[in-house]
Amino acid sequence: MTWFALQRVDARLQDLHRETLSQVAQALDLSKRSADLATSAPYLLNQRSNFLIGQEGAKLLTVLDRVRTDWPEIPFSDAPGEQPPVSDILDSMNAGVTDLVAASRSLDALQAQLRLQTAVLGVLRNTATTSIASPNENDATRLIWWSLQSMNADALNAAYAGNLIGVGEEQRHYLRQREAVNTTQLTQEQESFLGRVEAAVWGSTGVFELRRQELSRNLAAQNALFRIRHDANRINDLAGEYADQAEAFLARERTASSRTIRVTRISVLAISALSLVLAVTAALYVSRYVTFNITRVSAAMVRLANGDRASALPRRLGGKDEIGDLFRSFRSFRANALRLDRSNRQLDQRNALFEKVFTNISDGIAIADPTGRVSARNPAFAKILHLPDSSQEVISFVDWLHQGRFAKAAQRIDLMQDHRGFCELVSSDGQVLELRSSKLPDDGRVWLLADVTERRKMSDRLQQIDRIETLGKVAGDTAHDFANILSTIRTHAHLIETRGHSDAKDSLDSIGNAVDFGASLTDRLLAFARKQSLAPELVNLNVLIEGMADLVEIGLKPNAELDISLPLKPLHVRVDPGQLESALLNLILNANNAIADEGHIKVTLDQHSTSQACILIEDDGHGMPLDILDHAIEPFFTTREAEGGTGLGLSIVYGFIRQTGGHLNIESKVARGTQIEVLLPLATVDNEKPKIAIAKTSLLVEDDPKTRKVVRKLLEDLGYDVTSSGSGQNALTLLQQNRFDLLLSDFDLGGTIDGLDLIEMAARTKAATKTIIMSGKSSAKKTVPDYTVFIDKPVTYEKLADALEVEEHS
After folding, report:
1. Disulfide engineering: 720 pairs with which of 117, 216, 595, 715, CB 3.0-4.6 Å?
2. Is the same domain home to 79 and 119?
3. Which H or E run includes 332?
4. Average pLDDT over residues 314-325
């Protein structure tokens, strides 16, 4: 009977709880939906298409319909008329959402039009800025451009004004600027600019009107949002009233139920006492079984935790109850402990191997935390930096570098900002440090330092070998042409000797042409063989490429034809002519090597763009497959290892072109040939040559009598009064006693005083206004001071005249 009474009371309370809580939960859920609707409504203003605005608005209206349908109709109070009707609130929210959707659609259209006009004004702003900065504009025109740019800026400011007052203020500024512009002084381009600005700011689609409408629609949208939030708060209040009524109803029902519970309490106490007796009896019986087995499991777990992996429990013990679960859990723990021991042993072995590698590797390794501090390093790290291993710990990686032998080089760069995984540092004594880094997951870094000095020396040596290899091939082929030159000279000299003076002029012309050709070959071979980079100078590509034809044809195969195409307009670049000739010769010889039987090599010079010249070298050889083309410019990569190729030629050419500010593009197809495009920046040329100011007196110093006689005659032809000297000592005496307008000296005078000594003495004492030095050794040029002009032997009238012109210009 007690159980029945309690069951009745419990069932009654459960029904009440279920009924009331269900309706309260329903009311709160609908209240939450309305609150979510008020929260999500502002996002309508962020949509950028009418479709999305309509879609989101339909979702909000669907939520309102759901709230209207599911709102509970059964109140908990005795006076249902006291509660506010929810339908009126929902109607108000529905109207607010409809107004918000309409405002959002209008805002989207207005903002789209405003963005278009703003983009137009942005383009006009860039146009005005470019015109203001143009050097071709005078001050008056530039001032008008400033006014037009200011008008454009006022229009742009209006497009971003935060309120209607700001729009009106910017419009007044614009009108004042417009009235100040004198349209009669505008250029055609400025009138076009002003017309486009006016079209963008006035009318129904102008910036001022569009921004006003946008701000007005935005105020309407904010008003709709306020109404939606207000109605959502009213629904929340209504849901709160439902909850309060439910609480009061449950309190009344609990009071009624407590009376029933008091009646049954005595019965429950009696039954509880009887149950306690039964429970104690059962506990005494079960405790013996449970306690004994738990003690065994606990002892085994303690032994296992202390490292006794041999500790075990019998498998036959433990049934399907909780004690059995404990036995099985112990066995699982023991198996996991054994696996963990094996993993730890393997990890120790790996750590030992890593420690051995970390300690004994010849490269320096440092591990830095996210702040840049070195948390670990190997012995080679300090050794490579030439620092004692006991140096201060816990300092940053940058501090380590700044204390070592590469401190000066490291201070030139910001390793933590500029470093991208690889760089090289060079110490004052020429040591090269290769620095690499990899990022760690915690934003730290692993730094790898390697001393690559010997490797770099080997690379430089291989580059020199490759250059000597190419030079040797060209020089060997040139020997045949020199034999022809000498044969020509010998033949015509014999004709002069045997026939007398009748045909002497033609023979002398032929001898002169042969000598010029030999000198040209010699100059180009010397330029190609130079080890040091020369200072860039203004080079006429048409002349340089045309002049290379003789030298290139010597190195070509007999069955290879060379075709050179040059434009009518001369193209000038600022490069080292010797290195450019070397690079082009290397590329043409590579094309020559790609031709097996018969083939053609075409060299085309053209203007690629307004700022670049293009040298295109094409051949119809065997071409390169893609895997070789991808590595063609890598150092040491070669397909001619059997022929002794080093793989440095193309990489050196690529490096030179890049240093010059140009680009190198390679295209190749197997069995069809290769195209190499060399792009170089064009240089401006001053067409007006300075006039030669002829000096009155000159001192010529040359130890060779024949050369002295020839050069003296050239100076006299140029209008100089020449004083000659055959030794450095005699020339020094003349410079101490006299003042000359020009000093022209040989580099090597065969005594203790050379040409450089005379040049320096003349510059120090102002004994000569102009100084020129000549030599047959091109390598001597690098030792000549900047204030002295250098000319190659043999000296010709043209060379001497050009040198005097350069000296006068400088």
Report:
1. 715
2. no
3. helix 322-360
4. 68
CATH number at residue 225: 1.20.120
Of the candidates 279, 240, 298, 249, the residue with the CA atom closest to the CA atom of residue 84? 240
- Residue 537 placed within a domain: yes
Q: Measuring CA to CA, which residue among 488, 422, 494, 432 is closest to residue 457?
A: 432
Residues 633 and 707 in one domain: no
d(CA 579, CA 641): 25
Structure tokens at 505: 């002029």
How far apart are the C-alpha atoms of 623 and 634, rounded to whole Å? 17
Claim to verify: residue 41 and residue 186 sit in the same structural domain: no
**660 and 547 fall within a common domain:** yes
pLDDT above 80 (res 533): no
Question: What is the full DSSP assignment across 197-254?
Answer: HHHHHSSTTSHHHHHHHHHHHHHHHHHHHHHHHHHHHHHHHHHHHHHHHHHHHHHHHH
Residues 234 and 152 in one domain: no
Cα atoms in the 13 Å half-sphere on the side-chain side of 239: 24
Rounded distance between C-alpha atoms, residue 728 and residue 773, angstroms: 13
Strands of 631-672 (E only): list them: 663-669
Alpha-carbon distance of 159 to 117, in angstroms, equals 9
Reported as type and span, the H/E element at residue 167 is: helix 164-180
If phi > 0 it is left, if psi is from -120 to 50 it is alpha, else beta; for residue 400 that is alpha
Helix (H, G, I), strand (E, B) or coil at 141: helix
- The tokens describing 591, both together, are 């094309």
* Any domain includes 559: yes
Contact between 364 and 383 (Cβ < 8 Å): yes
Query: Same domain for 188 and 241?
Result: no
Q: Return d(Cα 748, Cα 738) in angstroms, integer.
A: 23
Q: Render pLDDT for 98-146 as a digit per residue (tens, 0 to 9).
A: 777 777 777 777 878 888 888 888 888 888 888 888 888 788 888 888 8
Q: Where in the sequence is the domain holding 754, given as residue range(s)?
A: 697-809
What one-character DSSP code corresponds to residue 56?
H
Strand 789-792, strand 768-775: pairing = parallel
Question: What is the CA angle 790-791-793, rounded to 5?
Answer: 140
In a domain, 802, yes or no: yes
In degrees rounded to 5, what are phi and psi of residue 639? -105, 5
Query: pLDDT tens digits, residue range 538-556?
Result: 889 998 888 777 667 767 8
Length reported for the chain: 810
129 and 82 in a common domain: no
293 falls within a domain: no
Q: Are strands 612-619 and 572-575 parallel, antiparallel or unpaired?
A: unpaired
**DSSP-derived secondary structure letter, 689:** P
User: Do the beta carbons of residue 107 and residue 52 sit within 8 Å?
Assistant: no
Number of helices and strands (H, E) in the chain?
22, 17
Same domain, 499 and 646: yes
Question: Can you give the pLDDT at residue 691?
Answer: 43
Q: What is the CATH number of the domain that holds 377?
A: 3.30.450.20
- Rounded to two decimals, the pTM is 0.33
Burial group, residue 707, by CB count within 10 angstroms (0-12, 13-18, 19+): middle
Q: What is the pLDDT of residue 477?
A: 56
